[in-house]
Amino acid sequence: MTTHTPSRRWYTGVAGTYIGLAIALLAMVLFFGSMSEYFLSANTFITIANDIPALTVLAVGMTYVLIIAGIDLSVGSVMALSSALCSLAMLRWGWGLAPALLLGLVSGAACGFLTGFVSVQWQLPSFIVSLGMLEIARGAAYVVTDSRTQYIGSDVDWLSSNLIGGISPAFVIALAVIVIGQLVLTRSVFGRYMIGIGTNEEAMRLAGVDPRPIKVAVFTLIGLLASVAGLMQTSRLEAADPNTGIGMELQVIAAVVIGGTSLMGGRGSVISTFFGVLIIAVLEAGMAQIGASDPTKRIITGLVIIAAVMLDKYRDLRKQGRQAG
């Protein structure tokens, strides 16, 4: 009789997830390629690559948050606030690019820290706390920019410039974040603690691990990554738009859930999340090329999200069945 160690079962399950997502992505590419003669072109894939850096970076942070059984709805607003503060520093205060970028990064990390600290310290649902931060950050972005787009110019366009074959530095940075994020999750004590907290927080306490600073650190990290995403958007537009990132949190959560990260916590993969990002991006690009209306795009995206959640629930039920057996 053949036996499988837990690690072997884990690797087999992960490989199966990657293969399944890769097949789904390939099927979508072939479908839209058959529907539009322009889809299977270098220009389409370069455009997709340069469109997804902000979503990718945010999705890494959201993967961590969902793994610890939390959620952060404020990421789109934090993007806007970080971008707004960067423009304020450069246009009104006369700061150089480096200190202005640093201000944007610090502001995002501070928003994430506040969300995590309030949620953990007072044992409040992160859904509610982050919803409050969503309104605070968005309102602050409007105040800072006087509710108008602030044009910065070419000083910030380097992140979106052509690097190699039309690929932008922002995409390279996003790939680096994916690699680092996966290594932290799978090869570090911090990553094991995150999975442990999402699986059974009380067991972690009994094992002598205080979940509170870890959870606050995860929310601080997603705030920092939201500010990085905001600066990427600023570079693309060469401007700070207080409306940037509206609805972004829904796209991010969709990508992470499609990638297989459990909404119940304790399970997730940054690589799988990247597949989810690509699926969302290909779906949007493909529907745009075949002339689908905006309402149709939203309906189809919503159906994909529901299907992903149903699949997540099915996985949980199978896991519980195996454990019971």
From TrEMBL:
GO MF annotation list: transmembrane transporter activity
InterPro entries: ABC_transp_permease
Membrane topology: Multi-pass membrane protein
First-listed, main subcellular location of the protein, grouped into a coarse class: membrane
Pfam families membership: BPD_transp_2
UniProt GO cellular component terms: plasma membrane
Keyword terms of this UniProt record: Cell membrane, Membrane, Transmembrane, Transmembrane helix
TM segment ranges: 12-32, 101-120, 164-185, 214-232, 244-263, 270-292
Compartments (UniProt record): Cell membrane
PANTHER family per the UniProt record, alphabetical: ABC TRANSPORTER PERMEASE PROTEIN YPHD-RELATED-RELATED, RIBOSE IMPORT PERMEASE PROTEIN RBSC
UniProt-recorded name of the protein: Monosaccharide ABC transporter membrane protein (CUT2 family)
